[in-house]
Design goal:
By secondary structure, the protein is α/β, with parallel strands linked by helices. 38% of the residues lie in helices and 15% in strands. It is built from ten helices and eight strands. It has an eight-stranded parallel β-barrel, surrounded by seven helices. Helix 9 runs parallel beside helix 10. The structure holds 2-phosphoglycolic acid.
Length: 252
Amino acid sequence: MTTRQLIMANWKMNGVQAMRAAAQQVADNTAPDGAEVVICPPATLVTDIARDLAGAPVAVGGQDCHAAEAGPHTGDVSAAMLADAGAQYVILGHSELRSQGVRSDAVRQSAAAAIHAGLTAVVCVGETAEQHDEGWHQNRVRGQLYISLPNLTAFDPNRLVIAYEPIWAIGTGKTPTGEDIRAMHAAIRTTVIDLFGPAAAGVRILYGGSVKPGNAGDILALDGVDGALVGGASLDPADFLAIAGFGRGAQP
Ligand code: PGA
């Protein structure tokens, strides 16, 4: 089985109404039989972009959600709200949120809420430069996965995505070696199969951290890499389309 690759844009805290044109440009130039493409704009644009892209081969996602469905949580959005706004995905546990105190057990609860609301949860994990240099990275990521992934009774591999994002590679222009990425993705695969059984062979494991048009071809060709989570380069539609163009579509 060859997995259809998933290429996700994480716009982070970038994008006002004018950026709707960039999303439209991505949608207009995305082939339905290529890699699956998802744009995660800031929450303020999810509704508009989901409407703009209705019927296009590009889905929309949020960048975080609260574990509760509604209630006194000033500043947060729930998974149900994202789904209601037209999102199909939500990024959870991004290192920029973990660095502000979001812990793996909160990520697990948000992931459970996201799946319950009908979204696909994209759970981010990754090590610091120090952990990497000390050879701790695989243990670190395994530990994060054990706490961050929800206990699912009816496991659907399409509802869960793991994004491996080494913290030291995010926004820095640095990337791990191909062998490091391959080995980490294999370790993540073993861990999700441990947790969810053989069906977890279908969970997509993305690489994220300084993916650019110049390195996307090599990264997406690595064994066990099922797609990419793209930050900085996703803000330029031409760059993002170039990256998505390296993604593999569905194959028989
Ligand atoms: P970057 O960000 O592509 O700018 O390194 C990736 C991410 O944080 O998801």
